[in-house]
Amino acid sequence: MNVVIFANGEPTAAVEAITYAQRADLIIAVDGGGNHCHRLGIEPDILLGDLDSINSEVLKYYRKNSVLIQQYPTEKDKTDLELALDLAVIKQATQVTVFAALGGRWDMSLANLLILAVDDYAGLDITIIEQRTKIGVCRGGETKLLEFPHGTTVSFIPLAGDAAGVTFTGFKYPLTNQTLGFGSGCGVSNVLIGGKGMVTVGSGVLLWTAIVELPPGVNIIGSVPE
Question: What is the mean pLDDT of residues 198-225?
Answer without folding.
Answer: 74
